[in-house]
Amino acid sequence: MLLRQTLLFIYQYGNLSLSKGLFYGLLVVFYLMLSAPADTVSTYQVNDKVIHLVLFFGLMGLAHITHPQIQLLKLAFPLAVYGLATELSQGLLPDRDASIYDWIADLGGIVLAMGLIRLLKSLAKL
Fold this sequence. Notes:
Layout: H1 2-13, H2 17-35, H3 48-66, H4 72-92, H5 100-125
Helix pairs in contact: 1-5, 2-3, 3-4, 3-5, 4-5
């Protein structure tokens, strides 16, 4: 019951300008983080692919909350292109490398978020 109420609240108030500002602001912040020189990136002992997966999982979830009227695939495609663009831009920096595996992790986060969104939507209908 609490899960259903929480989901209804998110869907009802998800179009707030604050959540949209947060989403678009995070796009900029994530781009800056993913394009920063290697020596300024955090040295936490977390696998780089896990970070990519979690970032894009969160972006996809926030994209859906801020734009619930848009189909999931139509939200996923620009995020996938965004992930590819960040990887390509990293390849242009002297101390960073582009990695297809990072982009695959980005896609994995997007797909996992889409699965969770669909699951939560089906549970909310019960």
